[in-house]
Amino acid sequence: MKTLKKIDDLKAIEESTDGKWLVEQLRRSLEISVEHIVRTAAIVRRLEELGIEVTIKIAALPFLRKIAHGNMIPELYVALEGDNLLLEKAASLPTPDQEKISRNDPLKVMEINGESRLVPPLSMTRQEIHQVFANGRLRDEAEQVGYLRDRLQKEAARSANKGEELVRVDRKRGGIIIAGAFLSASDLAHYLGELSKPRR
Questions:
Q1: How far apart are CA 97 and CA 89, in angstroms?
Q2: How far apart are the C-alpha atoms of 13 and 62, rounded to whole Å?
Q3: What's the domain count of the chain?
Q4: pTM above 0.85, yes or no
């Protein structure tokens, strides 16, 4: 009987042209996923309380334990499942930040020249994730720029050790590459302008 109900449900989804109804079905499906994660986490916690070792290989086990002990919201796991790097970084954040990440609210991503972009967490590159997320917190603007400068210095040192050319002109993109990092002509002009300013 349950199988027939599932088939009817899938058929209704396949034939529907009602976007509002489909969005509501999507929301309900996600809620079921959250309920499922909460239930699974509760089972893991109870097994641990009884001293029974969980021998089933579950990749999500560390996250389920966090959820079971109130250190991670289940919505975060549902939202980021499959993106292990982002999930690991976000799982160590305070609950209000976890809530923002689970909603995929855009976060400020700084450029080395001090400019910024708003990027949803699920659209971030691996480099941007490492830049924005520190252990247990989100980096502020100054910390992000410091992180980028530190990375640039390390790349320059590595290039110097390998005997690579530190500065190359990139005519196609209209700028230069310093130790692997691209700097546009306008950014370069900005930095040179800063050097010409009198000291205070």
A1: 11
A2: 34
A3: 2
A4: no
